[in-house]
Each structure stands twice: as structure tokens, then as C-alpha cells.
Amino acid sequence: MQSYRDQGAAGALLDEYERAIRELQDLVKTIEDHELTIIVDQETQDSDCISMQSVLTHTVRAGII
């Protein structure tokens, strides 16, 4: 992991983003492909919350914007 902390508050924020991305990558590696599409919330009206795949897609898209 590269450290940006010596670049002030913005650097510390970049470090935190990098840590969070690595943790998300490590978590996703533990999930089997077929588990991603299982509907886990039958009652939600929010299409971003019905499966792990939809939550991950929403998360990644939110980080791009």
C-alpha cells in the first residue's frame, strides 16, 4: 500500500480510500460467484439492495461519480 499521509488531509483521505478498497476486495474474494446473485432481501423496493451483486454494483458506481 502506498502512503499519502505526508500530503496532508487529502493524502490521509486517499490512504483511507485505499484501505477501504483493499478490505472490500478481500471480502469479495471470499464470496462464491453463485452467492452474488442470491436475492437476500425479498421486501426491499430499492433495486440496489436485493443481492450482494446489486449492493457491490451500487458501491462501485458511487465511487466512480
Give a concise summary.
The protein is mainly alpha-helical and 65 residues long.
Write the SSE topology:
Layout (H helix, E strand, L loop, with lengths): L7 H22 L3 H4 L15 H13 L1
Structural summary, described in words:
The protein has 65 residues and is mainly alpha-helical. Helix content is 60%, strand content 0%. The chain has three helices and no strands. The radius of gyration is 15 Å and the shape is elongated. The mean pLDDT is 87.
Total DSSP E strands: 0
Terminal CA distance reads 23 Å
The helix content, as a percent range, equals: 55-70%
Radius of gyration: 15 Å
Note poorly predicted spans. Answer: none
Oligomer: single chain
Characterize the main sheet.
none
Characterize the overall form.
Answer: elongated
Structural class: mainly alpha
Strand content: under 5%
The total number of structural domains is: 2
Q: How many helices does DSSP assign?
A: 3
Mean pLDDT: 87
SSE arrangement, N to C:
HHH
